[in-house]
Amino acid sequence: MAEQVNDQAFLEYVVKTIVAHPGDVSTERIVDERGVLLTLNINPEDMGYVIGRRGQTAQAIRTLLKIVGAKNNARVNLKINEPEGSRRGPAERGSIDTSSVDDLKI
């Protein structure tokens, strides 16, 4: 059981170290037939830290989660909740392409 929640603990650890409000970080973990879905909730002021320029930080976190998932034979996906009051504009709210690591085999 401890191996299965490593992905959630890893996500919380990484995000809490890069945000200004680590106490506001929370995650939800749902397992279904498509794999593991981790939903990340953060303070609206921290969105920029987690997303990064052009989504690079979020992409890096997703890549690391896919590696952690592959180690445990699970497909791990990350959803970042858009909090009320987020400073990102409408043009920046598109989805991030993770196709380069979707079928990562380790």
- Which assembly state applies to the chains in this document? single chain
Structural domains: how many: 1
What's the number of extended β-strand segments?
3
CATH superfamily: K homology (KH) domain
**Which fold name corresponds to the CATH topology?**
GMP Synthetase, Chain A, domain 3
Q: Helix amount, in percent?
A: 25-40%
N-end to C-end Cα span: 21 Å
> What's the CATH class, please?
Alpha Beta
Rg, rounded, reads 13 Å
The SS-based structural class is alpha+beta
Average per-residue pLDDT, rounded, comes to 84
What's the architecture in CATH terms?
2-Layer Sandwich
Provide a count of the helices.
3
Strand order of the largest sheet: 1-2-3
Tell me the fraction of residues in β-strands, as a range.
Answer: 15-25%
- Poorly predicted segments: none
Q: What sort of overall outline do the alpha carbons produce when their principal axes are compared? A: globular
Region (Disordered): 79-106
Biased composition (Polar residues): 96-106
Function: A probable RNA chaperone. Forms a complex with KhpB which binds to cellular RNA and controls its expression. Plays a role in peptidoglycan (PG) homeostasis and cell length regulation.
Subunit structure: Forms a complex with KhpB.
